[in-house]
Write a structure and sequence with these properties.
three-stranded antiparallel sheet; globular; mainly alpha; 518 residues
Length: 518
């Protein structure tokens, strides 16, 4: 894919994301789902009203800034309500989230490009992310989860850019990585898993390097001729891998220049423990701490330590993952297959011209001819194909170790890892880092907690489809086209329940494939 078509494709993805997030942003003149907390909290900062916040305050600051800017724009105030504590248009407390969420597909595409230097992989990653439902829903309302994701992803992108540079430029990008990782944790505590994924990838790179640093014991017990043959075999493998790396390296005609002939992940061992602790330890902790200053100045009930104790106490007392606690509680193992999405908004009306009530129950069963539903659920086929692609990557990594074990008669890893092996390692580690911590969480959790992990699923299916489309075999190219087509069609099919468009009762039931989705 040449640079021109790549740029056209990415601009199209961004315009699509922007249009879907801003279209009908004022459709529901009320507080949708957790807007009852976050929109109010954002407004409380503007009215200097003290309050207790069960999460770090960064996203509420941003929502408050959006409300302030939106209130000074002389249009988009056709509908107003006082549900935030002040008379506000729904547009004012939603627009900045919509704008921020529009950039997430671009950041995912940027990470894909830095991982591989392949424009086709980057474009597919951005497109698939733009075609997901839960990211679209979360971006259209004054909620906080998109900020965890975008700051965490920016942290990873800046880290990859740092690995792609040297000296001062590397330090520059590492500082920004530390800042954005700190901002992710400053939105919600589970933003910490993005940072842990970076550390685990770094540790994995060092472990692989240490394995390679040990001398091969077989060479000490073989004849000189066999020694020379094995050395020649290793040199040939190294040249083959080097040719593959240079195919995707920044020095190739299709990529920008770079001082390194390797992809960024292969430079991880150039970072020592002191750099990691400073740039991805001290800086994030410092950013997280200063984020709290405005909130603690407003609400002086608790100090820095005490407020964290209160937050922890709040979450520990939320109860377990049971419908008795909340009808949409869903344990972590229900997320990958999307067995329990949740409704953020549900109302029925007698006609599409009827004004929806700001508060109050829907019409009795059978009376409503029009259904308005905002469902926080992903694109089913994107998630299902994606988890299959993630399992494929796990199998690919395990097979390399097993094959090498069979050949060498001992545990080892290949002398040099291909670009795609590094990509697989990165995606699997970061997916696991953002999902497995929830195994030990006993409080009621929801499907939106999976957002930090599922972005790596989008990257996994984009990688798989890209491999198919670039394959020599026609059957694999057809498979890649088919998967892409199904994901796009599924996004269009379920779009009415992402955007809260009016549906007939039959149209609504047609999209609720399983009873657990309702």
């Amino acid at each position: 894919m040449n640079k021109k078509w790549f740029q056209i494709g990415m601009v199209s993805v961004f315009i699509l994301s922007l249009a879907l997030r801003f279209w009908g942003l004022e459709r529901f003149n009320t507080l949708v789902f957790d807007e009852v907390y976050f929109a109010k909290f954002g407004n409380n900062y503007l009215t200097h009203t003290p309050f207790f916040n069960a999460h770090p305050p960064l996203s509420q600051y941003i929502i408050g800034i959006g409300i302030w800017i939106g209130s000074h724009i002389p249009f988009w105030h056709d509908t107003v309500n006082g549900l935030t504590g002040s008379m506000r248009s729904p547009w004012t407390y939603r627009w900045l989230n919509a704008l921020t969420g529009s950039f997430i597909p671009l950041v995912v595409a940027a990470i894909a490009y830095q991982l591989s230097y392949r424009r086709s992989f980057a474009l597919l990653a951005g497109l698939f992310t733009a075609c997901d439902g839960i990211f679209l829903v979360e971006s259209r309302y004054a909620l906080s989860n998109i900020y965890i994701v975008i700051f965490g992803l920016l942290g990873h992108w800046f880290l990859l850019l740092a690995l792609d540079n040297q000296n001062r430029r590397r330090s520059f990008w590492l500082v920004f990585a530390g800042i954005t990782f700190g901002a992710s944790v400053g939105t919600k505590w589970n933003g910490l898993w993005f940072l842990s994924g970076a550390y685990l990838t770094w540790i994995a790179a060092w472990v692989i390097d240490l394995i390679h640093s040990f001398p091969n014991p077989k060479l000490f017990f073989t004849s000189p001729s066999l020694k020379k043959a094995e050395v020649r075999s290793q040199e040939a493998e190294f040249r083959r891998q080097e040719a593959e790396i240079n195919t995707y390296s920044p020095s190739s005609p299709s990529s920008p220049s770079s001082p390194s002939s390797q992809t960024p992940l292969q430079n991880l061992t150039q970072l020592n423990i002191f750099q990691m602790l400073f740039y991805l330890g001290i800086i994030p902790a410092f950013i997280y701490s200063i984020i709290w200053i405005p909130h603690l100045q407003l609400d002086k009930t608790y100090g820095f330590i005490a407020v964290h104790q209160q937050i922890l106490k709040f979450h520990l007392h939320l109860g377990g993952n049971s419908p008795n606690v909340h009808p949409y509680c869903a344990a972590w193992y229900k997320w990958p297959l999307m067995t329990r999405p949740m409704a953020y908004y549900y109302q029925t009306a007698e006609s599409i011209t009827e004004r929806l009530p700001v508060m109050g129950p829907p019409l009795p069963a059978g009376a409503g001819q029009v259904v308005y539903d905002v469902h926080a659920m992903g694109n089913p086929f994107l998630w299902w194909f994606g988890i299959a692609a993630m399992l494929f990557l796990v199998g690919m990594l395990l097979s390399q170790v097993v094959i090498h074990w069979v050949k060498e008669k001992r545990f080892s890893v290949p002398a040099t890892l291909s670009v795609d092996t590094w990509i697989a390692l990165y995606l699997v580690i970061n997916y696991v880092a953002n999902l497995l911590p929830w195994v030990e969480v006993t409080r009621c959790a929801f499907i939106y907690h999976y957002m930090c992990a599922v972005v790596f699923v989008f990257l996994a299916i984009a990688w798989f489809v890209d491999q198919c489309l670039r394959s020599y075999y026609q059957q694999l190219r057809a498979l890649g086209v088919t998967i892409t087509f199904i994901i796009l069609v599924a996004f269009i099919f379920w779009m009415p329940i992402y955007l809260g468009l009016p549906l007939s009762p039959n149209g609504y039931k047609l999209r609720m494939w399983f009873n657990s989705w309702i």
